[in-house]
């Protein structure tokens, strides 16, 4: 006889069946950041998760930042960092360091995916002219090479996915002169998901999700219609650091992304649990026309 | 916190990753018969398993017989059945009944697959002229409409798979005059797997696998090179009902099938366990050039 | 010298030229039933005709019923048949018999086409989920597994035609649970022709066409605009058994079929005569925008 | 009732069925010349025949000469014509006239085909560099712009056929300097058929076929293997004007053409009779591996 | 060291870069006529220019007339020519001569292009039924086989360009009966450019461009918006022989051609200078939405 | 009149015609290094040259190193560098710096190409698993993360070129564990050219070419067959720093590259001069079967 353990394994796989069917050929943008980029074990698991999404027929794209590596190298170069309105003032040398660090982080991820047997192609927002930017001003002040996204040319992403590559993107864009600019990784992920009309945008970061009561971890909401999210913003329930994130999400949903997920990247295999089991992780914000499905 | 149960689920999925990669786009012929066709629960599970294989990127083909239904309808029609050399003497009326029963069983399977959200196309060996046969003689005796496969035209199977259908095949072939003949389902599965150079041919039947000692269920061998199988045949270890099955397997492996599996269809989700976990089910017979992988 | 006989043959072929050009690559749905299914000589001729249509570049599809075979097997199984509003009450066993008989009739047609050197693929309305049905009620009464067509998914038909197969269809559909239902073959042919925006739908049955005077065989009308047909219905000229047939035709024409033909299947090679000579057979009902062409 | 006349028409069409299947997608090169180019009625019939071949799925190519038109225009221009070894000495002005006349004849054929609803493209051997030639010398004597074919680039023919055009070719080639040369139309047809590995090369000219006794019209041979033809040449049975034609045929058959037909273009619809009925016209010379089929 | 001469060569090539990029894959119709067809040196240069346009990725099409060759052959045939409203009265024999001469001129161009290593296909307006015409009447008078273009079927042009051929077209069209008609080459070029929505239509003829003062060669305008051209026509600045040409241009621009160029074909390599340097040749008439670029 | 200057420009373009035709669709690998990477003016010119090659229909690929930037950043990080056998000992931190610097240099090139209107995609040898390496040992000594190329998977390059991207590659490869290794850029260019069977491999570096007399700059050889190069090596004429370069070339030519060019990157637009004029730059080494073409 086959023992119980194996039958349970089979059940887990069968449980995944409707999700595999539902997301077949669908574009999933994963914003990868936070602890999941630093902790080696979590990192390994995130890569495994994305590789599995790709192998079962989804079309995932990773968008990543540089985590704390950029600051580490800026320090190493002996530079002092100034912040304006929460944004790093980015002079020529700083943008060079950012480019270098992000490029290296990118290829580490590429190598990790390749060793799991899936083709990866790491690109910046400059390749194929994907992310066109203009200089961002903070209260009218020039803070250097920090860019706002003006347009997204998705051709290179479509071409790579068509050829069966998993695209891994880092958020350096360029202006009309070909100068490189740093872009906020959350914004880049959101702009890319919007331009691709992605089925889902998943933010992996160090929050548990949206709380009804900021002080109460047990008050995390599992699913919200975009209108409900807007109402919570208006009513002041959503506030603090979560506020800009949610505003960003609301915009992306209105522009065509079907479903955005704010996930706790500190939970092992959170992507898998979210995609393949009935265990919802964090908070999903969805379009009115979608049915909430964790209540099923 | 996410509880332990979910982390274990994630582990099961991750464990499947190398198998999903290994069989990507590979043709898997599943000979479906025995208890798994009769027991409604087992039947549902086999369909789920094959649908999952399809959804994660394999290219499964089901070949099925009629189980005990043919005999039931022959009885219903008030016919007496004669057997020669273990084969049913098949007159005009009997072949008509066989065609009718197999056609109906086929569409039931089609309906089951369709309701799980995967496209299925049920065909006989006559569609597209797939299975060409000639009359089989037993010791020179004409036993009616029982056929030996002369050639396999795989065009219709390739076309259907190309268009993303799961082909479900029943073993009625035709001779040059267009007359229908019954074919042994094991032989049909083996001929189709050979013609397609399938990656794997899985026999789902009511045996646990090949035993070293026919009396000892614990003596099932998990993996054999084709040469080893030949030796066991020569040495008389393999005998009885298993003998023709194994001879059939040896031939198919020599003609290009990579791996043949004799599986116990009475075990729930045996296909899934075999394909996605490190639990080998039954006996695999493999080509010399393949590495045995359960020992890893 | 070549004798007169051969020159006349050449003339016949040349006469076919404009018709061959006109229907090039056009979809022709042939509803096959009545005497032409029973008489072996007529049957052979219909198959020849359809094969010729295929070979000269048309895209024919055969939709067939089971003729009197279903009743014969229901009787054989010792069942009594009840009719409600002209429709057979179809219990579980009856639908099984219908499926079996239709499946077998289908493969006989497949074999006949294949032996003429053309690829055929026989499918039911369940394959590829082509015909989705819901239970039909007669005056509120449940008459079992008899279905009304809810939707037609033409993917499997397009795929087969694309791969150069002649599709042969039998009218068993399925509901959302995957249960099989019998469908009226006329309705199935009409629904398929409509969904494919077929160039022509030809009904082969045992009527000479639409008569102005039901008692007078010489009053058969050769061509009618759909508006004229509607008027004849309103005026009560068309009545009796012809009435539902014509109503069905009117609907299909309004939904995109260009031309419907009610043909006498008892005439040898009626399809060929209709398609390739200036001899109109039976009654054509056409859209306003089409020109009547037998008057040319 | 349908009268007998129509049933006979149907029989003629059905008789064509095996031939339509046999030549499906096959390349047929028709050398068009002789009376069939001059007599308006015969011309109209040849065009109808080729158009029908195209419409039922064959891939015909017409290769034509200029008939007596070239001589007429040379006379008109007041030039005297010299012949060496049966070939016209072709000075600069003569080749210009040949080009002009052939070009015009070509477009007349194009117009005739187009008005029957089939796309035609008329090209010379210079278009796409199809026919590369070198100067032909007769007993060492330069006879001007008369060319021997050095190579055939079939790209333009394949491209046109692929796009569903009927190619109509006239035999002007060019040398490496781009100078135009006249080519014997029989040679051009044979070289093109060879380069395309055509299924059949049909010569339409004013002969009844190959005679066993040159004096006896009733001694026309209907079918010869290429070896038999060689033997007849060796034995001196084939002689006179037929000799170079047959030598040409023998070479083309050895180089890959399957079947060459010497047909009497004076018989109305000779192409149709040859292709679609069991009435063989003229003499077929075939490869050993082909079965003679008029004897069937 | 590399001497100055080579660095200047490199500069010329680099200067061409933005133009090569701008016209990549764009359709350019070149109406070829005037001195550039007669002078052998100019002819060679025009061919080189068009071949270069093709090789660097543009999609040029040549449309040509017969220059003075038609008159020369009409004279040769001893015919008198009558003109009505500036148009040659074209009887049956004249249209035949026109067809012959144009066909020959066409193949000369084909040969010239082929010897430069680019594939050319020479076609008339009858091939593929490209130019459909109806008889032109001058003040109600029938002047024979002179046609007005009724419709342009661009399929053959698209097919040839798709297969990498340079199409070379001569302006003989046909009416519904298949009769050939002469068409004004300027009108044919304009109709073809319009039907293809060409990026540019370049007229190579013996004028320097549009003059503000007809008497002053230095008053040539280099660039005009279509509205400006209309105003110059209204104000009577453009008059005489230039008037119909400009009216023709205005119409084509309104129907979708982006830019029309009236170029002096007597200048060596005028096409190259126009396309690849900042030296504008002759007069460009452009759509409002285009930016004038020689002023850059 | 058009002045002389413009006619000379046209001549330069016409002179380029045979070269544009010859290299149409051909793969050209450009190893970019030396002064041409440092001098901003030369850099701009190289980019212009490669962009022009791309626009006129060649398929160029840039392979670049990091020039002196890597050393600069290693110094900045306060590391001492040890060399063994001329190779930098590359510890973990050094390989990280190399990756970062090369990644940044790469994206600068991408930006430069993009601003000229051509799509560029910058990749490392790790993307798509293109360059697989194993650790290089110098006299048995482990010098860290310096790799020898084991295999080249050209899929990502073919995919990018197919989609009209100009690939820009930097020579970081990975071993089976996914660890990054530095590769000599000359070796990477040569391995890539070999794997792609490139038409030409052009080395842009600070040498004038191969000299017969190392002391005499005027003794540069313009063209050598590979056998002649081997002889010069044997005879000791080629020696010093040129020796390994030439050995590398000889190997690549034997493995399928058609033609290798050692060019002086200090000459402005050396690529253009080499490809589009009859001015040969540096030394070409070619296969026996190629004709030397500067002597034409």
TrEMBL record, chains A, B, C, D, E, F:
- Annotated compartments: Cytoplasm
Q: In which pathway does it act?
A: Amino-acid biosynthesis; L-arginine biosynthesis; N(2)-acetyl-L-ornithine from L-glutamate: step 2/4
Keyword Protease appears in the UniProt entry: no
- Which terms are listed as keywords in the entry? Amino-acid biosynthesis, Arginine biosynthesis, ATP-binding, Cytoplasm, Kinase, Nucleotide-binding, Transferase
Occurrences of domain Aspartate/glutamate/uridylate kinase (ranges): 26-264
Record-linked PANTHER family: N-ACETYLGLUTAMATE SYNTHASE, N-ACETYLGLUTAMATE SYNTHASE, MITOCHONDRIAL
Q: What is this protein called?
A: Acetylglutamate kinase
